[in-house]
Design goal:
The chain is α/β, with parallel strands linked by helices and about 575 residues long. It folds into 2 domains: about 280 residues, P-loop containing nucleotide triphosphate hydrolases (Rossmann fold, 3-Layer(aba) Sandwich), CATH 3.40.50; about 240 residues, Class I glutamine amidotransferase (GATase) domain (Rossmann fold, 3-Layer(aba) Sandwich), CATH 3.40.50.880. Helix content is about 35%, strand content about 20%. The protein has 20 helices and 21 strands. The strands form 4 sheets. Strands 11-10-12-13-21-20-19-16-17 form a 9-stranded mixed β-sheet, with helices on both faces. A 7-stranded parallel β-sheet has the order 5-2-6-1-7-8-9, with helices on both faces. The chain has a 3-stranded mixed β-sheet with strand order 14-15-18, covered by helices on one side. β19 and β20 form a beta hairpin. The longest helix is centred in the N-terminal third of the chain and has 20 residues. The C terminus is likely disordered. The site of glutamine has 10 residues, from β17.
Length: about 575
Amino acid sequence: MSNEELMAKIGQSTEDTEFYTPMPPGYRKGRHKFVVVVGTVMSGLGKGIFSSSLAKLLQDKGLKVAPIKMEGYLNIDSGTLNPYRHGEVFVLDDGMETDMDLGTYERLLDQDLSAANFTTNGQILSGVLKKEREGGYLGRDVQVIPHVTGEVKLKLRELAVKTQADVVFVEVGGTVGDYENSFYLEACRQLAYEEGEDAVCFVALTYVLEPGTLGEQKSKAAQLGMKRLMEMGIMPDIIACRASNPVNDTVRQKISMYTNVPMKRVFSMHDVESIYLIPESLRSAGMDREVLTMLQLHDHVDQRAEDQARLKWRWFVDRIGKARREITIGVTGKYTSLRDAYASIIKAVEHSGVHHGVEVKLKWLDTTNVDASSVARRLEGCHGIIVPGGFGVRGAEGKIECIRYARENRLPYLGLCLGFQMAVIEYARNVCGLNGANSTEFDPRCAHPVIDILPEQKKIEGLGGNMRLGGKDVILKPNTVAWRLFDESESIRLRFRHRYEVDPKYIQTLEEHGLIFSGRAPNHPIMQILELPAEAHPFFMGTQAHPELTSRPLRPQPMFMGLVKAAMEYAEHGRTVAVAGR
Ligand code: GLN
């Protein structure tokens, strides 16, 4: 039987074989390699940052990498998860709503990802159940092994074929020993067996405790975590020890001895000042070389590409923390203490700050108790404001007050999604005189529903009436601030996640009163960017999109660049007299 015939046979679930290994069309064994990253001891060790940094190092060498995050929960995607519990919902260009780690991968790899780069237990299991109903496993009792694990392996190989990746980075969510991740690990174990030698490299991230009362590093928890992994039939190839301080040799030796992983592959991964330093610190420790050795990829390295990539990255990293100027930007947020909910905004501001050579401090503003009498005091010290995306009425009036203040006092403003809608409401009420203007999200019976759900428009776009999600083209109006920010491009692409939008029947009134819609959808009257003319305000912009999702360290997002620049000027020249407004 030829290899292909055998593969075809084990890809079918029949009664005369215990194998179930469906292969995607075009899959060539040996063409793609896999790095599987697992965590032990505890979650929250920065597995995503670690994994994306390692992937970046291989990408820098000219290898094509494709990451995938495998989540243990039963939700089909992250769209229904509460950001204050799980961090922000990240939206990919194809509209997939994912865990915030996908943002880390996109930013570090400067690569757009798709639904193929993300999976959950819910997706895998519902796929298996659907296949069962369609008769896909006819005659067989459907089992976690081999059927569920077979679908997981299929997903990994499909990603390899789709992206033509040299190396697929598999990040298994949670920690080894969690029930919900156990079949992912089992699938990876099988994958390593099927792919053969030099094809799959297991990297275990663990944690070395250093209890304050003892004042020394203890390896036991790490050892137990590794033991757990080995009980599942997985021998780690590389161990990365997270710790606050450099992990000492005694601890590394113990871990090495208990796992059969040679000392040269037990790495200390202690805290560094900035996540952007992690790729270089992994590199100087030699982890990338060890991965290349394990996967027999040394011949594929493009030295020139690596030198250039490192040079560019160095430029960025060298500027971090070196700024001599400092500005403060106020961010209105609901549960403002939970920063993960605003991870991409924090990153986008940071990218722009580095490029402008300024340290940007964020001041979190709970707007539930902001009103006309307190707004000036609450915004004191801010050189710009961001009203980010959100759902629900809580703090809405306070946000509108902040926007009014920003508009009237020439304080730089950037509104993101909900912040765009709020700016429209504020303008309608306070400049156009439309008393009672609001969004039907907050007040379904308001006098002027300037922001509303428009099912007809959704239908035109074939989106089935729920959220408008993912990357969309935005046509820019020439000679506007937005047009200049985007290098005079005719059309740009931004990512969206919203249900409500500007009701087109109010567009004329808003424009007649001076508001400029500088970005629109190509075929429908969906307003996507607004601004005030440069004479009226130094920087007042809102977008129905989430531009923070597409900011990258080496390609900062232009709207954030514009805001930070304007805030620097505001900080330098102080408050100027209000031009527009009441
Ligand atoms: N709640 C608003 C809407 O659904 C804004 C959404 C958002 O900010 N992501 O349109």
